[in-house]
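Type VI lipase adapter protein Tla3 N-terminal domain-containing protein: structure, please.
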Amino acid sequence: KKLILPAWGWHQSSVWRKIKEKKNNFTSIYSQNPEDYTDSLLSRENTQSINIRAAFKHSAGEAVAYWPIPTFAIAPPPKQPSDTGAADNILNGRNAATLGVTLFLWQDAENTTHAQKMLERLFRLFDDNPQVPQALIVSEDGDVTRNGLRVAGTPGLQNAQVVPTVFESMTGLLVTRSDRVDRYIRQYATNESEDNQNKNSDLGKLWSFYWERDKNLYEAPIIPRYRMPRAPCPPPTGNPSSRPSGKPSAIAAPAISSPPLGYLFAGVSIRSRSSTLRRCLATCIGQSRL
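Here you go.
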């Protein structure tokens, strides 16, 4: 296993520059002088929003579009039962980064200040499911984030120059297995046009199935105490055979030992096939603990 961390412009390369300038692994790269920080709470909230967008754009934005991606989310513990907590990060990040055709699946979410267990679950997903080619883990923390999770009626952040107690930190990490991408995706590429509203097309059937599951989830009764309908990450589990609109197109795909857990490549010119799409989506949904 290897990990590659690309640096994108200001959001990441600036951090590496500060680390080099500090030349000390045991002290913060950030100033401890309150005068170095803005007194505007709105500015801090805007920075949080920008960071959320950047984290998703430069991680989930590189995922395969129209391809269900198991997603793990981490956030600070909420202060009241009505907060959805970490799972809400998925919906917020998707919208902020305008990833409208990325099919996020809520794989797991935890409200915690430690990521170790969630990282272990992510890699265990790959070990337990040899056909899963990609997964995403996202985290969010900081004073502004925690301010939104405070108990209703308690004092929140004010307009003041202060050194943040917890600096805003939004992270997205996309993990892929190139061997599985080659095996379960590339050989099913076609030049089918991108029209997810056409329910007579393979892509339209997949799109309809995905959002139909999401609709059913939103209409589900609220789960008592500490758990809300898991709407941020569509779909739960179910039998896919009766879900897609119409019948799959009779297009032969290269034979492999088992049905691929793959769906559609990003871009109009690379598409997968419906006969495998529904089986694969259903398998992925079934493996996601929703």
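Notes: The helical segments are 9-22, 41-57, 88-96, 116-128, 143-148, 178-184, 202-218, 274-287.
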